[in-house]
Amino acid sequence: MMNADITGTTAAEIADSVRALRERGMLRPGDALPPVRELASLLGVNRNTAVSAYRQLAQAGLVISRGRGGTLIAGSGGVAQEGVADTVLHDVASGNPDARLIPDPTKALGRIVGRPVLYGEPVIDAELEQWTREWMLADLPRDDLQVCVTSGAVDAVERLLAQALMRDDAVALEDPCFLASIHTVRLGGYRAIPVPVDDEGMTVAGVRAALDAGVRAIISTPRAQNPTGVSLSPARAAALQDVLAEHPYVLIIEDDHFSLLSPHPYASLIGPQHRRYALVRSVSKFLGPDMCLALAGTDPVTAERLAMRLSPGTTWVSHLLQRLAHAQLTDADVRAQIAAAATHYAQRNATFTAALEQHGITTNSSDGLSLWVRLEVPARVAADKLMRQGWLARTGDEFRLDDAAPTSHHLRLTVHDLSDADAARLIGDLVAAQR
Protein backbone atom coordinates (compact mmCIF):
# COMPACT_ATOMS: atom_id res chain seq x y z
CA MET A 1 0.00 0.00 0.00
CA MET A 2 1.45 3.37 -1.02
CA ASN A 3 0.42 5.03 2.25
CA ALA A 4 2.84 2.79 4.11
CA ASP A 5 5.75 4.05 1.99
CA ILE A 6 5.36 7.64 3.22
CA THR A 7 7.49 8.19 6.30
CA GLY A 8 8.51 10.97 8.67
CA THR A 9 7.60 12.59 11.97
CA THR A 10 8.01 16.26 10.99
CA ALA A 11 6.44 18.20 8.14
CA ALA A 12 9.79 18.51 6.37
CA GLU A 13 10.50 14.77 6.67
CA ILE A 14 7.05 13.84 5.35
CA ALA A 15 7.40 16.24 2.43
CA ASP A 16 10.86 14.87 1.63
CA SER A 17 9.48 11.34 1.70
CA VAL A 18 6.73 12.16 -0.80
CA ARG A 19 9.24 14.00 -2.98
CA ALA A 20 11.55 10.97 -2.98
CA LEU A 21 8.69 8.62 -3.91
CA ARG A 22 7.77 10.95 -6.77
CA GLU A 23 11.35 11.16 -8.04
CA ARG A 24 11.69 7.36 -8.01
CA GLY A 25 8.49 6.94 -10.00
CA MET A 26 6.64 5.25 -7.15
CA LEU A 27 4.19 8.16 -7.15
CA ARG A 28 3.08 9.36 -10.57
CA PRO A 29 1.19 12.44 -11.78
CA GLY A 30 -2.47 12.10 -10.86
CA ASP A 31 -1.87 9.67 -7.99
CA ALA A 32 -3.89 10.58 -4.89
CA LEU A 33 -2.17 11.06 -1.54
CA PRO A 34 -3.95 9.87 1.61
CA PRO A 35 -6.28 12.34 3.31
CA VAL A 36 -4.63 14.47 5.98
CA ARG A 37 -6.36 12.78 8.89
CA GLU A 38 -5.52 9.30 7.57
CA LEU A 39 -1.86 10.21 7.00
CA ALA A 40 -1.55 11.73 10.47
CA SER A 41 -3.00 8.59 12.03
CA LEU A 42 -0.73 6.34 9.95
CA LEU A 43 2.42 8.21 10.95
CA GLY A 44 1.38 8.96 14.51
CA VAL A 45 1.74 12.71 14.10
CA ASN A 46 -0.46 15.72 14.75
CA ARG A 47 -2.93 16.59 11.99
CA ASN A 48 -1.34 20.05 11.66
CA THR A 49 1.99 18.38 10.86
CA ALA A 50 0.43 16.54 7.93
CA VAL A 51 -1.28 19.74 6.78
CA SER A 52 2.05 21.58 6.88
CA ALA A 53 3.75 18.81 4.87
CA TYR A 54 1.13 18.98 2.14
CA ARG A 55 1.36 22.76 2.10
CA GLN A 56 5.13 22.57 1.57
CA LEU A 57 4.61 20.15 -1.31
CA ALA A 58 1.96 22.39 -2.86
CA GLN A 59 4.20 25.46 -2.62
CA ALA A 60 6.95 23.54 -4.36
CA GLY A 61 4.52 22.64 -7.15
CA LEU A 62 4.77 18.90 -6.41
CA VAL A 63 1.13 18.35 -5.51
CA ILE A 64 -2.21 19.91 -6.38
CA SER A 65 -4.99 20.35 -3.85
CA ARG A 66 -8.46 19.62 -5.24
CA GLY A 67 -10.33 20.43 -2.04
CA ARG A 68 -12.76 17.61 -1.41
CA GLY A 69 -11.24 15.91 -4.43
CA GLY A 70 -8.10 15.26 -2.40
CA THR A 71 -4.41 16.01 -2.92
CA LEU A 72 -2.86 14.72 -6.14
CA ILE A 73 0.70 14.40 -7.41
CA ALA A 74 1.26 17.21 -9.91
CA GLY A 75 2.36 16.57 -13.45
CA SER A 76 5.49 18.01 -15.07
CA GLY A 77 3.63 19.80 -17.84
CA GLY A 78 4.15 23.53 -18.34
CA VAL A 79 1.94 26.05 -16.61
CA ALA A 80 -0.23 28.48 -18.53
CA GLN A 81 1.64 31.52 -19.81
CA GLU A 82 0.71 34.72 -21.58
CA GLY A 83 1.75 35.25 -25.19
CA VAL A 84 1.59 33.77 -28.64
CA ALA A 85 0.98 30.04 -28.84
CA ASP A 86 2.76 27.71 -31.25
CA THR A 87 -0.37 26.73 -33.13
CA VAL A 88 -1.96 26.70 -36.56
CA LEU A 89 -5.18 28.00 -34.98
CA HIS A 90 -6.21 31.65 -35.04
CA ASP A 91 -4.91 32.78 -31.64
CA VAL A 92 -7.33 34.96 -29.65
CA ALA A 93 -5.80 33.85 -26.35
CA SER A 94 -2.50 35.73 -26.42
CA GLY A 95 -3.24 38.91 -24.46
CA ASN A 96 -0.64 40.69 -26.58
CA PRO A 97 -0.61 44.32 -27.72
CA ASP A 98 -0.78 44.93 -31.47
CA ALA A 99 2.80 44.93 -32.80
CA ARG A 100 1.78 47.46 -35.45
CA LEU A 101 0.94 49.98 -32.71
CA ILE A 102 4.24 49.74 -30.84
CA PRO A 103 6.40 52.80 -31.65
CA ASP A 104 9.53 52.21 -33.71
CA PRO A 105 12.54 52.94 -31.43
CA THR A 106 14.96 53.61 -34.31
CA LYS A 107 14.85 57.39 -34.00
CA ALA A 108 15.24 57.28 -30.24
CA LEU A 109 18.21 54.90 -30.40
CA GLY A 110 20.33 57.60 -32.00
CA ARG A 111 19.67 59.93 -29.07
CA ILE A 112 20.67 57.67 -26.20
CA VAL A 113 24.33 57.11 -27.00
CA GLY A 114 26.50 58.62 -24.30
CA ARG A 115 29.36 57.82 -22.00
CA PRO A 116 29.49 54.27 -20.60
CA VAL A 117 28.06 53.59 -17.14
CA LEU A 118 30.53 51.92 -14.79
CA TYR A 119 30.30 49.84 -11.62
CA GLY A 120 29.21 51.73 -8.55
CA GLU A 121 27.27 54.46 -10.33
CA PRO A 122 23.61 55.20 -9.52
CA VAL A 123 21.34 52.42 -10.76
CA ILE A 124 18.65 54.81 -12.03
CA ASP A 125 19.15 57.16 -14.95
CA ALA A 126 18.75 60.68 -13.54
CA GLU A 127 16.48 61.98 -16.31
CA LEU A 128 14.22 58.93 -16.21
CA GLU A 129 14.03 59.17 -12.43
CA GLN A 130 12.91 62.80 -12.56
CA TRP A 131 10.33 62.12 -15.28
CA THR A 132 8.97 59.12 -13.38
CA ARG A 133 8.70 61.05 -10.14
CA GLU A 134 6.61 63.77 -11.80
CA TRP A 135 4.44 61.18 -13.56
CA MET A 136 3.69 59.21 -10.42
CA LEU A 137 3.27 62.17 -8.07
CA ALA A 138 0.55 63.48 -10.37
CA ASP A 139 -1.52 60.39 -9.46
CA LEU A 140 -0.09 59.45 -6.07
CA PRO A 141 0.85 62.68 -4.23
CA ARG A 142 3.13 61.30 -1.53
CA ASP A 143 5.91 63.35 0.01
CA ASP A 144 7.87 60.16 0.73
CA LEU A 145 7.70 58.65 -2.78
CA GLN A 146 10.96 57.14 -4.03
CA VAL A 147 11.62 55.92 -7.59
CA CYS A 148 12.97 52.47 -8.47
CA VAL A 149 13.42 50.69 -11.80
CA THR A 150 13.19 46.95 -12.45
CA SER A 151 13.28 44.51 -15.36
CA GLY A 152 9.54 44.52 -15.90
CA ALA A 153 6.48 44.36 -13.67
CA VAL A 154 6.82 40.67 -12.83
CA ASP A 155 10.40 41.28 -11.71
CA ALA A 156 9.19 44.21 -9.60
CA VAL A 157 6.48 42.15 -7.90
CA GLU A 158 8.86 39.27 -7.22
CA ARG A 159 11.48 41.58 -5.66
CA LEU A 160 8.88 43.51 -3.67
CA LEU A 161 7.47 40.34 -2.15
CA ALA A 162 10.94 38.92 -1.44
CA GLN A 163 12.05 42.03 0.47
CA ALA A 164 8.96 42.03 2.67
CA LEU A 165 7.83 38.43 3.14
CA MET A 166 9.02 35.08 4.38
CA ARG A 167 8.08 31.69 3.03
CA ASP A 168 4.49 30.69 3.86
CA ASP A 169 3.38 34.32 4.39
CA ALA A 170 -0.06 35.08 2.98
CA VAL A 171 -0.59 37.33 -0.07
CA ALA A 172 -3.97 38.64 -1.23
CA LEU A 173 -4.54 38.17 -4.96
CA GLU A 174 -7.44 39.14 -7.19
CA ASP A 175 -9.63 36.20 -8.15
CA PRO A 176 -9.65 35.58 -11.10
CA CYS A 177 -6.01 36.56 -11.28
CA PHE A 178 -3.23 37.52 -13.70
CA LEU A 179 -1.27 34.36 -14.56
CA ALA A 180 2.15 35.82 -13.71
CA SER A 181 0.98 36.88 -10.24
CA ILE A 182 -0.28 33.37 -9.52
CA HIS A 183 3.05 31.84 -10.54
CA THR A 184 5.14 34.44 -8.70
CA VAL A 185 3.32 33.85 -5.43
CA ARG A 186 3.34 30.07 -5.69
CA LEU A 187 6.97 29.79 -6.76
CA GLY A 188 7.99 32.17 -3.98
CA GLY A 189 6.49 29.80 -1.42
CA TYR A 190 3.79 32.26 -0.30
CA ARG A 191 0.13 31.43 0.37
CA ALA A 192 -2.33 32.98 -2.04
CA ILE A 193 -5.52 34.32 -0.46
CA PRO A 194 -8.19 34.94 -3.13
CA VAL A 195 -10.12 38.22 -3.13
CA PRO A 196 -13.14 38.29 -5.46
CA VAL A 197 -13.27 40.94 -8.19
CA ASP A 198 -16.53 42.54 -9.31
CA ASP A 199 -17.31 45.39 -11.70
CA GLU A 200 -15.56 47.91 -9.42
CA GLY A 201 -12.44 45.96 -8.52
CA MET A 202 -11.47 44.01 -5.40
CA THR A 203 -14.46 43.64 -3.10
CA VAL A 204 -14.46 45.22 0.35
CA ALA A 205 -15.62 42.00 1.99
CA GLY A 206 -12.89 40.07 0.21
CA VAL A 207 -10.13 42.41 1.36
CA ARG A 208 -11.47 42.34 4.92
CA ALA A 209 -11.45 38.54 4.89
CA ALA A 210 -7.89 38.52 3.50
CA LEU A 211 -6.72 40.88 6.25
CA ASP A 212 -8.41 38.67 8.84
CA ALA A 213 -6.50 35.75 7.33
CA GLY A 214 -3.25 37.59 8.08
CA VAL A 215 -2.07 38.68 4.64
CA ARG A 216 1.15 40.68 4.65
CA ALA A 217 0.86 41.90 1.06
CA ILE A 218 -1.90 42.75 -1.41
CA ILE A 219 -1.40 42.76 -5.18
CA SER A 220 -4.01 44.87 -6.96
CA THR A 221 -4.56 45.99 -10.54
CA PRO A 222 -6.10 49.48 -10.45
CA ARG A 223 -6.88 49.57 -14.19
CA ALA A 224 -7.60 46.95 -16.86
CA GLN A 225 -7.49 44.03 -14.43
CA ASN A 226 -6.31 40.89 -16.16
CA PRO A 227 -8.34 38.85 -17.09
CA THR A 228 -11.62 40.68 -16.32
CA GLY A 229 -10.74 44.10 -17.78
CA VAL A 230 -12.40 45.98 -14.90
CA SER A 231 -10.90 49.09 -13.30
CA LEU A 232 -11.03 50.16 -9.67
CA SER A 233 -13.76 52.75 -9.18
CA PRO A 234 -13.06 55.87 -7.05
CA ALA A 235 -15.83 54.87 -4.62
CA ARG A 236 -14.44 51.35 -4.19
CA ALA A 237 -10.90 52.73 -3.80
CA ALA A 238 -12.07 55.05 -1.00
CA ALA A 239 -13.87 52.19 0.77
CA LEU A 240 -10.80 49.95 0.54
CA GLN A 241 -8.53 52.74 1.81
CA ASP A 242 -10.78 52.98 4.88
CA VAL A 243 -10.42 49.23 5.51
CA LEU A 244 -6.65 49.32 4.98
CA ALA A 245 -6.17 52.34 7.24
CA GLU A 246 -6.08 49.92 10.18
CA HIS A 247 -3.30 47.90 8.50
CA PRO A 248 -0.71 50.51 7.40
CA TYR A 249 2.19 48.05 7.27
CA VAL A 250 0.55 45.57 4.90
CA LEU A 251 2.47 45.99 1.64
CA ILE A 252 0.20 47.22 -1.16
CA ILE A 253 1.52 46.52 -4.65
CA GLU A 254 -0.44 48.16 -7.44
CA ASP A 255 0.36 46.82 -10.90
CA ASP A 256 -0.81 49.68 -13.14
CA HIS A 257 0.27 47.89 -16.31
CA PHE A 258 -2.14 49.70 -18.66
CA SER A 259 -1.39 53.21 -17.37
CA LEU A 260 -0.84 55.35 -20.49
CA LEU A 261 -3.34 53.32 -22.52
CA SER A 262 -6.23 53.47 -20.08
CA PRO A 263 -9.12 55.92 -20.50
CA HIS A 264 -9.93 55.56 -16.80
CA PRO A 265 -8.49 57.81 -14.09
CA TYR A 266 -6.10 56.16 -11.66
CA ALA A 267 -7.81 55.12 -8.40
CA SER A 268 -5.71 53.63 -5.63
CA LEU A 269 -5.81 51.42 -2.56
CA ILE A 270 -2.85 53.38 -1.18
CA GLY A 271 -4.11 55.85 1.40
CA PRO A 272 -2.27 59.06 2.37
CA GLN A 273 -0.94 57.51 5.59
CA HIS A 274 -0.21 54.00 4.36
CA ARG A 275 3.36 53.05 5.28
CA ARG A 276 4.32 50.28 2.84
CA TYR A 277 3.37 50.62 -0.80
CA ALA A 278 4.56 50.33 -4.40
CA LEU A 279 2.97 51.68 -7.55
CA VAL A 280 4.42 49.68 -10.46
CA ARG A 281 4.09 50.82 -14.08
CA SER A 282 5.54 48.68 -16.83
CA VAL A 283 6.15 50.07 -20.32
CA SER A 284 5.42 46.71 -21.97
CA LYS A 285 1.90 47.41 -23.22
CA PHE A 286 2.80 50.62 -25.07
CA LEU A 287 6.57 50.45 -25.79
CA GLY A 288 6.62 46.68 -26.27
CA PRO A 289 7.14 43.60 -24.06
CA ASP A 290 10.78 43.34 -25.16
CA MET A 291 11.61 46.57 -23.33
CA CYS A 292 11.53 44.57 -20.07
CA LEU A 293 11.39 47.69 -17.93
CA ALA A 294 9.08 48.83 -15.16
CA LEU A 295 9.07 51.94 -12.99
CA ALA A 296 8.03 51.87 -9.35
CA GLY A 297 7.13 54.55 -6.85
CA THR A 298 7.56 53.28 -3.30
CA ASP A 299 7.86 54.34 0.31
CA PRO A 300 11.48 54.98 1.52
CA VAL A 301 11.83 51.74 3.49
CA THR A 302 10.66 49.61 0.58
CA ALA A 303 12.92 51.60 -1.77
CA GLU A 304 15.91 50.98 0.48
CA ARG A 305 15.22 47.25 0.62
CA LEU A 306 14.72 47.11 -3.14
CA ALA A 307 18.03 48.92 -3.63
CA MET A 308 19.78 46.06 -1.87
CA ARG A 309 18.41 43.77 -4.62
CA LEU A 310 19.32 46.16 -7.45
CA SER A 311 22.97 46.70 -6.65
CA PRO A 312 25.32 48.48 -9.08
CA GLY A 313 27.31 46.14 -11.27
CA THR A 314 25.24 43.03 -10.71
CA THR A 315 21.48 43.46 -10.96
CA TRP A 316 20.84 46.94 -12.29
CA VAL A 317 18.63 47.58 -15.30
CA SER A 318 20.69 48.63 -18.33
CA HIS A 319 21.09 52.41 -18.56
CA LEU A 320 20.82 52.11 -22.33
CA LEU A 321 17.37 50.60 -21.85
CA GLN A 322 16.46 53.30 -19.34
CA ARG A 323 17.59 56.06 -21.68
CA LEU A 324 15.66 54.49 -24.54
CA ALA A 325 12.49 54.42 -22.46
CA HIS A 326 12.97 58.04 -21.41
CA ALA A 327 13.70 59.17 -24.97
CA GLN A 328 10.48 57.60 -26.21
CA LEU A 329 8.28 58.62 -23.30
CA THR A 330 9.29 62.27 -23.74
CA ASP A 331 8.89 62.28 -27.53
CA ALA A 332 5.70 64.00 -28.70
CA ASP A 333 5.35 61.74 -31.74
CA VAL A 334 5.68 58.59 -29.63
CA ARG A 335 3.15 59.85 -27.09
CA ALA A 336 0.76 60.57 -29.97
CA GLN A 337 1.22 56.97 -31.18
CA ILE A 338 0.50 55.68 -27.67
CA ALA A 339 -2.67 57.79 -27.51
CA ALA A 340 -3.74 56.46 -30.92
CA ALA A 341 -3.12 52.88 -29.71
CA ALA A 342 -5.28 53.53 -26.64
CA THR A 343 -8.11 54.74 -28.87
CA HIS A 344 -7.73 51.72 -31.16
CA TYR A 345 -7.93 49.16 -28.34
CA ALA A 346 -10.94 50.86 -26.75
CA GLN A 347 -12.84 51.19 -30.02
CA ARG A 348 -12.17 47.67 -31.28
CA ASN A 349 -13.16 46.12 -27.97
CA ALA A 350 -16.28 48.29 -27.71
CA THR A 351 -17.36 47.35 -31.22
CA PHE A 352 -16.89 43.63 -30.51
CA THR A 353 -18.72 43.93 -27.18
CA ALA A 354 -21.70 45.66 -28.81
CA ALA A 355 -21.91 42.96 -31.46
CA LEU A 356 -21.83 40.24 -28.78
CA GLU A 357 -24.63 41.92 -26.83
CA GLN A 358 -26.88 41.75 -29.90
CA HIS A 359 -26.68 37.98 -29.51
CA GLY A 360 -27.23 38.02 -25.74
CA ILE A 361 -23.58 37.42 -24.85
CA THR A 362 -22.24 39.77 -22.20
CA THR A 363 -18.86 41.08 -21.14
CA ASN A 364 -18.14 43.33 -18.16
CA SER A 365 -14.74 44.38 -19.51
CA SER A 366 -14.25 48.14 -19.51
CA ASP A 367 -10.54 48.39 -20.26
CA GLY A 368 -7.47 46.47 -21.39
CA LEU A 369 -6.26 44.39 -24.30
CA SER A 370 -8.76 41.54 -23.90
CA LEU A 371 -12.44 40.88 -23.20
CA TRP A 372 -13.91 38.74 -20.41
CA VAL A 373 -16.83 37.02 -22.12
CA ARG A 374 -19.58 35.27 -20.15
CA LEU A 375 -21.17 32.20 -21.78
CA GLU A 376 -24.11 29.99 -20.89
CA VAL A 377 -22.03 26.82 -21.28
CA PRO A 378 -18.82 25.87 -19.46
CA ALA A 379 -15.83 27.68 -20.93
CA ARG A 380 -13.97 24.46 -21.69
CA VAL A 381 -16.90 23.19 -23.73
CA ALA A 382 -17.03 26.43 -25.69
CA ALA A 383 -13.24 26.49 -26.18
CA ASP A 384 -13.34 22.95 -27.60
CA LYS A 385 -16.05 23.93 -30.06
CA LEU A 386 -14.12 27.05 -31.06
CA MET A 387 -11.01 24.96 -31.62
CA ARG A 388 -12.89 22.85 -34.14
CA GLN A 389 -13.66 26.09 -35.99
CA GLY A 390 -9.99 27.13 -36.02
CA TRP A 391 -9.82 29.36 -32.91
CA LEU A 392 -7.53 29.15 -29.88
CA ALA A 393 -9.27 30.70 -26.85
CA ARG A 394 -8.29 30.95 -23.20
CA THR A 395 -10.75 29.71 -20.56
CA GLY A 396 -11.38 31.36 -17.23
CA ASP A 397 -10.32 28.17 -15.45
CA GLU A 398 -6.68 29.09 -16.05
CA PHE A 399 -7.01 32.30 -14.02
CA ARG A 400 -8.66 30.96 -10.87
CA LEU A 401 -6.79 30.52 -7.62
CA ASP A 402 -8.83 27.64 -6.28
CA ASP A 403 -8.37 24.47 -8.31
CA ALA A 404 -11.55 23.10 -6.70
CA ALA A 405 -13.67 26.11 -7.73
CA PRO A 406 -16.68 25.54 -10.00
CA THR A 407 -16.02 25.31 -13.72
CA SER A 408 -15.65 28.76 -15.29
CA HIS A 409 -18.15 30.08 -17.81
CA HIS A 410 -15.81 32.83 -19.04
CA LEU A 411 -13.44 33.10 -21.98
CA ARG A 412 -10.72 35.72 -22.16
CA LEU A 413 -10.51 36.81 -25.80
CA THR A 414 -7.96 39.14 -27.41
CA VAL A 415 -9.81 40.53 -30.42
CA HIS A 416 -8.46 44.06 -31.01
CA ASP A 417 -6.32 42.99 -33.99
CA LEU A 418 -9.01 40.98 -35.79
CA SER A 419 -10.26 42.19 -39.14
CA ASP A 420 -13.96 43.01 -39.34
CA ALA A 421 -14.55 39.78 -41.23
CA ASP A 422 -12.68 37.65 -38.69
CA ALA A 423 -14.44 39.40 -35.81
CA ALA A 424 -17.83 38.63 -37.38
CA ARG A 425 -16.82 34.99 -37.91
CA LEU A 426 -15.66 34.65 -34.28
CA ILE A 427 -18.93 36.10 -33.01
CA GLY A 428 -20.86 33.63 -35.11
CA ASP A 429 -18.78 30.76 -33.78
CA LEU A 430 -19.29 31.98 -30.18
CA VAL A 431 -23.04 32.03 -30.69
CA ALA A 432 -22.90 28.50 -32.14
CA ALA A 433 -20.71 27.30 -29.28
CA GLN A 434 -23.51 28.10 -26.80
CA ARG A 435 -26.08 25.91 -28.51
Automatic annotation (TrEMBL):
GO molecular function: DNA binding; DNA-binding transcription factor activity; pyridoxal phosphate binding
Keywords: DNA-binding, Pyridoxal phosphate, Transcription, Transcription regulation
InterPro entries, per database record: Aminotransferase_I/II_large, HTH_trans_reg/aminotransferase, PyrdxlP-dep_Trfase, PyrdxlP-dep_Trfase_major, Tscrpt_reg_HTH_GntR, WH-like_DNA-bd_sf, WH_DNA-bd_sf
KW Methyltransferase (keyword) present: no
SMART domains, sorted: HTH_GNTR
Domain HTH gntR-type: start-end pairs: 8-76
Transmembrane segments: none
Gene3D superfamilies: Type I PLP-dependent aspartate aminotransferase-like (Major domain), Winged helix-like DNA-binding domain superfamily/Winged helix DNA-binding domain
Similarity-based family: In the C-terminal section; belongs to the class-I pyridoxal-phosphate-dependent aminotransferase family.
Designated name of the protein: Predicted transcriptional regulator of pyridoxine metabolism
Species this protein is from: Microbacterium esteraromaticum
